[in-house]
Amino acid sequence: MDIEKLIETALDYRNKAYVPYSNFKVGAALLTEDDKIFGGCNVENASFGATNCAERTAIFKAVSEGYSSFKAIAVVGDLNNLTAPCGICRQVMAEFFIKDAKVILATSKDNYVIKTMEEVLPGAFVKDDLIN
């Protein structure tokens, strides 16, 4: 896994964010099991409930292209402090991420931490709980 490339892609998508209300840009880069990268940015709306986070934008874009299993995501928000996904994004990530998926929180290619899904969303509510 090329962590630097994922972070670089997330930084690129961060620059595309539409954030006229919060001015808080977030970019994400999602890695499929066959190493294809999908990027996403946050897109705000005057009706705040219609806002979509960068992580979900990337996931939904990938799912709409036929992918549904992911092994990593890089997230870049604040360039001075690490930005973690919100609760809704964490739940969506739990739906599609493989067991050992990595969540990379970064401010730059040189400053990042790698977390597991269990660390980001302990005791996640997942589809296997519904199926079995």
TrEMBL record:
UniProt-recorded Gene Ontology molecular function terms: cytidine deaminase activity; identical protein binding; zinc ion binding
PANTHER family associated with the record: CYTIDINE DEAMINASE
Any one biological process term the GO annotation gives: nucleobase-containing small molecule metabolic process
InterPro entries from the UniProt entry: APOBEC/CMP_deaminase_Zn-bd (IPR016192), CMP_dCMP_dom (IPR002125), Cyt/Deoxycyt_deaminase (IPR050202), Cyt_deam_tetra (IPR006262), Cytidine_deaminase-like (IPR016193)
Cofactor: Zn(2+)
UniProt source species: Clostridium cellulovorans (strain ATCC 35296 / DSM 3052 / OCM 3 / 743B)
Cited function: This enzyme scavenges exogenous and endogenous cytidine and 2'-deoxycytidine for UMP synthesis.
Keywords: Hydrolase, Metal-binding, Zinc
UniProt entry tagged with the keyword Secreted: no
Gene Ontology cellular component terms for the protein in this record: cytosol
Reaction(s) this enzyme catalyzes, per UniProt: 2'-deoxycytidine + H2O + H(+) = 2'-deoxyuridine + NH4(+); cytidine + H2O + H(+) = uridine + NH4(+)
Name of the protein in its database record: Cytidine deaminase
Domain CMP/dCMP-type deaminase: 1-128
Top EC class, one word: hydrolase
